[in-house]
Design goal:
The chain is of the alpha/beta class and about 250 residues long. It has helices spanning about 15-20, 45-60, 70-85, 105-115, 115-125, 135-145, 150-160, 175, 220, 225-235; strands at about 1-5, 30, 65-70, 90-95, 185-190, 205-210, 245-250. The longest helix has 15 residues, at about 45-60.
């Protein structure tokens, strides 16, 4: 199950999903308040979104799912795993929200208000590594999403609520330590939105992968690497000591 970040949509997973599809069933959501889920319940933050998606997941009745979440989607995935750990087989978190109070709030609010292709492209570039170029199919998907009635204002309102006092909410470390499923956290070494040093306080059994030359937009910057990390994490079954890796984003 793939959960995108704030201001995005399920279409950004296209390359990752294509790589995963031959070996597993893939389900990509539009988070509440985004795209086709613009008017669904759960709009307003990660906690509400987690409850809404868990309810939808229960209706689908899968035995267990491998959760993959980017940014806000990472916070949602983490809260889902905490609320219903028996339903989660593994947790792969890409620059997840909620792991520290620091956030580049002005950049997030600028991204929320980006309406035209030029400004969307500029925001994606500002959130990526210095060598990364935003894919045009992602720019087009986000532009089409934001053309939906009321979508832009919903994003602006959500961003304002998420970044009060230019800080974000934090998931307590004591709660994170209770997660028994395999957990992989992936962070771009050049992340300009959520500081990479938020990964330093992770529980010891979490695996950590730093991606050199990448910023915050890991799904777009390194889709093949993300897909390989997801496959690797789905094969883990027990808690292990945390290794630290480095890899280029190309």
């Amino acid at each position: 199950m793939l959960l995108h970040g704030f201001g995005s949509c399920q279409a950004i997973w296209h390359d990752v999903a294509a790589s995963l599809a031959p070996v597993m069933r893939v389900l990509a959501y539009d988070l509440p308040g985004h795209g086709h889920s613009l008017e669904c319940e759960g709009i307003g933050g990660a906690k509400q979104a987690a409850r809404t998606i868990l309810a939808d997941l229960a209706a689908r009745r899968p035995d267990k799912v491998h959760l993959v979440g980017h940014s806000m989607g990472g916070a949602v995935a983490t809260l889902m795993a905490l609320a219903d750990p028996g339903r989660v087989a593994s947790l792969t978190l890409l620059a997840p929200g909620g792991f520290g109070p620091e956030i580049n709030a002005p950049l997030l609010r600028r991204y929320a208000a980006a309406a035209g292709r030029k400004e969307i492209r500029a925001c994606l570039a500002a959130m990526s590594g210095t060598r990364s170029v935003p894919p045009e199919h992602v720019v087009d998907a986000l532009y089409r999403m934001r053309k939906r009635p009321d979508q832009l204002q919903a994003l602006i309102d959500m961003a304002a609520g998420m970044t009060r006092d230019d800080r974000q909410g934090v998931i307590p470390g004591a709660q994170l330590d209770t997660l028994d499923m395999p957990v992989m956290v992936v962070w771009g070494a050049e992340d300009p939105l959520l500081p990479v040093d938020q990964s330093e306080a992770l529980p010891s059994h979490f695996h950590l992968h730093h991606v050199l030359d990448a910023g915050h937009m890991l799904v777009e910057e390194a889709p093949d690497l993300v897909a390989e990390i997801v496959r690797r994490n789905t094969r883990r079954r027990t808690r292990r000591q945390r290794p630290v890796f480095g890899a280029a984003a190309s």
